[in-house]
Amino acid sequence: MIRRDSSAPWSRPTLTGLALFGAVLTGYLTIVKLTGGTAACPTEGCETVLNSSYGEIAGLPLSLFGLGAYLLVAVLALLPQGLSDEVDQRWQERTWTALFWLTTAMMAFSGYLIFVLTTDLQVLCLYCIASAALSLGLWLTTLLGKHWEDWGKLSFDGIIVTLLVSFAAIAINGTSPGLAADGTSNVPNNDGYRGAAIATVSAPDNIALAQHLKASGAKMYGAYWCSHCHDQKSLFGAEALAELPYVECDAKGINAQPDQCKAAKVDGYPTWVIENQTISGTQELADLAEASGYTGSKNFSSAS
Which residue, 105, 255, 270, 278, has most beta carbons within 10 Å? Predict the structure, then answer.
């Protein structure tokens, strides 16, 4: 006997609509991240999250993984449509189970990110809140849009998925709020947030270049939470940082000088100003040497 689908007629269309909306949202953020653009957002929190260590996983934009998750929800919601009756009925139950696991995982990860926003980054990111609301909507639609026969098993599955996602999120981004991407403490001291420690060792020419940039009046504008700023500092190495003409733009960072950043009209991090030329993004040391007229030895390197 073929069992009929026990879901409400509105459930799959609602899941599809919410998922496609989420795909558009995360797709836009992915394009902004990959192209180095600035997201349209009434608060600075959106840029803070996009450029922080929390905005990437394995060097890829976090929004790209969100895009994949939303598209997968849409596929699972639409999958049984157009199949033969017998095949369709078998896939109804399979896709509902997969949808519950997936939307539970999405809601758990969104909850973790909201926790990070309020405890670590301490910013307001409207895109993050919208994505969290969409994830919650997808989970509630999955939960309420179908007649589940075994609520005990469903609850157990939900707890297991939530725990796995939580452990994975902590493993990727650190063991607790206040940890930087490399696991070093990012808890503020009396002067402000330190940001992630630089683990690379400076070659002598790296230090010489940093000294030249400082002497020439060049400036590197950045923020303690900015992953690309961390990459730039890592190219110079730990020893060269003492000479690097770095300006902290976030008021919560150590020796912050946000007024200088506003005066320089900095709209992204890192931003270099060299010889009245504005250069955006992480730069190779050879390119910085050329832009600043550095004529010394150029055997630049850094090692961990």
Answer: 270
| Residue 164 structural domain | 11-173
End-to-end CA distance of the chain: 64
Amino acid identity at 156: F
Structural tokens at position 300? 């630049």
108, two tokens: 């758990």
Task: Report the 3 state secondary structure along 84-122.
Answer: CHHHHHHHHHHHHHHHHHHHHHHHHHHHHHHHHHHHHHC
Mean pLDDT of 252-264: 90
CA triple 82-88-93, angle to 5 deg:
135
CA separation for the pair 110, 179 (Å, rounded):
18
- Asked if residue 168 and residue 26 are part of one domain, the reply reads yes
Q: Residue 96 maps to which CATH number?
A: 1.20.1440.130
- How many secondary structure helices (H) and strands (E) does the chain include? 10, 8
Q: Are 119 and 237 found together in one domain?
A: no
- pLDDT tens-digit readout, 113-122: 898 888 777 7
User: Model confidence over 176-231: pLDDT tens digits?
Assistant: 334 344 434 444 444 567 777 888 999 999 999 999 999 999 999 998 888 889 88
Tens-digit pLDDT profile for residues 1-42: 344 456 788 999 999 999 999 999 999 999 988 887 778 887
What CA–CA distances, in Å, run from 179 to 84, 87, 128? 52, 49, 20
Q: Is 183 left (phi over 0), alpha (psi -120 to 50) or beta?
A: left
The CA–CA distances, whole Å, from 72 to 16, 61, 81, 142 equal 10, 17, 15, 14
Q: Whole-model pTM?
A: 0.64
